[in-house]
From TrEMBL:
<dbReference type="GO" id="GO:0005524">
    <property type="term" value="F:ATP binding"/>
</dbReference>
<dbReference type="GO" id="GO:0016887">
    <property type="term" value="F:ATP hydrolysis activity"/>
</dbReference>
<dbReference type="InterPro" id="IPR003593">
    <property type="entry name" value="AAA+_ATPase"/>
</dbReference>
<dbReference type="InterPro" id="IPR003439">
    <property type="entry name" value="ABC_transporter-like_ATP-bd"/>
</dbReference>
<keyword id="KW-0067">ATP-binding</keyword>
<dbReference type="InterPro" id="IPR017871">
    <property type="entry name" value="ABC_transporter-like_CS"/>
</dbReference>
<dbReference type="InterPro" id="IPR050093">
    <property type="entry name" value="ABC_SmlMolc_Importer"/>
</dbReference>
<dbReference type="InterPro" id="IPR013611">
    <property type="entry name" value="Transp-assoc_OB_typ2"/>
</dbReference>
<protein>
    <submittedName>
        <fullName>Iron(III) transport system ATP-binding protein</fullName>
    </submittedName>
</protein>
<dbReference type="Pfam" id="PF08402">
    <property type="entry name" value="TOBE_2"/>
</dbReference>
<dbReference type="Pfam" id="PF00005">
    <property type="entry name" value="ABC_tran"/>
</dbReference>
<keyword id="KW-0813">Transport</keyword>
<dbReference type="InterPro" id="IPR012340">
    <property type="entry name" value="NA-bd_OB-fold"/>
</dbReference>
<comment type="similarity">
    <text>Belongs to the ABC transporter superfamily.</text>
</comment>
<dbReference type="InterPro" id="IPR027417">
    <property type="entry name" value="P-loop_NTPase"/>
</dbReference>
<dbReference type="GO" id="GO:0043190">
    <property type="term" value="C:ATP-binding cassette (ABC) transporter complex"/>
</dbReference>
<dbReference type="InterPro" id="IPR008995">
    <property type="entry name" value="Mo/tungstate-bd_C_term_dom"/>
</dbReference>
Length: 386
């Protein structure tokens, strides 16, 4: 449905500044009917990518194909205008006009496309669009009388009224409070899926991306660093950045001491840990051991020799109550801290000794990058290997 190839975009230097390369030969594909999220921190290039797809920003190089139509190609000197790309877009601010009624807001795209279908047909399509987003009967209301969630639905109805072939959403949930954001995330996914439209969703929120997407492109510094389902990126990150951004992680510096079979052995500041390994790693490599907070089995019985698991002992440094769960920070040997999650009713006391079992299938060794590591002291990799 959407294919982006080697897209580049550089913003010229401002007086006294330097040029910013927002997109660095980015390529990706979106399948028909998928909800595809562009996820990453501020400045990673995700919004620039969305604007290039929409035709609101002109790339410096590359190619964009929507359906069977090339809408941008530098080599072919093709640049289809935003209004001719057949897209719907929901902005972060919703762009709801306060001087218009709900129906007038929703009808606006039909009146701007130079092919006014007539008052009766417009009214019918507005009613259909509002019913689609569960706002039937709201057409005569002023836009200022709506809640944040209702305004978001109006923006969505407006984006869908001309039956676009692709829906673009630029952080549409960021202006909602936390509880409503959770509710609207679920409703938005159900609505998009019920319509069957392909959607590209931009967000910096990992929970949003995991909850709404069929696939995610994780971006950093103008590049796509990993593409896959939310579950795949969470369980099988390629780098420390991917592990750290897609969910919480303990990132432990390590040296790979053995790469036998499907498991590798990581030498860490607190001992040797058997784990899965990302592709491309070799024995002797300096790497990062990723342990998700929900990975350790707390205070388990000692593992048998044949068990594919390691055990470490530490002391509880802090306990944070988070309602349905508690976050426990465990101080391990050589100055390492490890965060784990426990049941609210099993909270240990600060200072208590605690034993953690680390099954190999729950841990993964990944490539090093600039992500921070989970150490309290100045533990060097040379010390790890010693």
């Amino acid at each position: 449905m959407l294919k982006v190839s080697h897209l580049e975009r550089t913003y010229p230097a401002q007086p006294g500044g330097v040029a910013v390369q927002a997109l660095k030969s980015v390529s990706l594909s979106v399948e028909q009917g998928d909800i595809f999220s562009l996820l990453g921190p501020s400045g990673c290039g995700k919004t620039t990518m969305l604007q290039c797809i929409a035709g609101l920003e002109t790339p410096d190089a590359g190619r964009i194909v929507i359906g069977s139509q090339t809408v941008y190609s530098r080599d072919e000197r093709t640049q289809v205008s935003a209004s001719e790309r057949g897209l719907g877009m929901v902005f972060q601010s919703y762009a709801i006009w306060p001087h218009m009624s709900v129906a007038e807001n929703v009808a606006f795209p039909l009146l701007q496309r130079g092919r006014n279908p007539g008052r009766e047909q417009i009214a019918q399509r507005v009613n259909d669009a509002l019913a689609m987003v569960e706002l039937a009967g709201y057409g005569n209301r002023s836009a200022t009388q709506l809640s944040g969630g209702q305004q978001q639905r109006v923006a969505l109805a407006r984006a869908l009224i001309h039956k676009p072939r692709l829906l673009l959403l630029d952080e549409p949930l960021s202006n909602l409070d936390a509880k409503l954001r959770d509710t609207m995330r679920t409703e938005l996914r159900q609505l998009i899926k019920s319509i069957g439209i392909t959607a590209v969703f931009v967000t910096h929120d990992q929970v949003e991306a995991m909850g709404i997407s069929d696939k995610v492109a994780l971006m950093c510094a103008g590049k796509v660093v990993q593409v896959g389902t939310s579950r795949d990126i969470y369980l099988n990150p390629h780098t420390a950045f991917a592990a750290d951004f897609m969910g919480s992680s303990n990132l432990i510096p390590c040296v790979i001491s053995d790469m036998g079979g499907e498991r590798a052995i990581a030498t860490t500041p607190f001992g040797q840990i058997r784990a899965r390994a990302a592709a491309g790693l070799r024995s002797g490599d300096e790497a990062i051991l990723v342990i998700r907070p929900n990975a350790p089995i707390v205070d388990a019985r000692p593992a048998n020799a044949q068990d594919d698991a390691a055990q470490v002992t530490g002391n509880v440094a802090s306990v944070a109550f988070l309602g349905e769960k508690i976050e426990v920070q465990v101080r391990l040997p050589r100055g390492c801290n490890l965060v784990t999650m426990m049941n609210t009713f099993d909270a240990p006391a600060e200072g208590q000794e605690i034993r953690l079992t680390l099954p190999a299938e729950r841990c993964i060794i990944v490539h090093r990058d600039n992500a921070a590591v989970s150490t309290a002291g100045d533990v060097k990799l040379a010390e790890v290997a010693a």
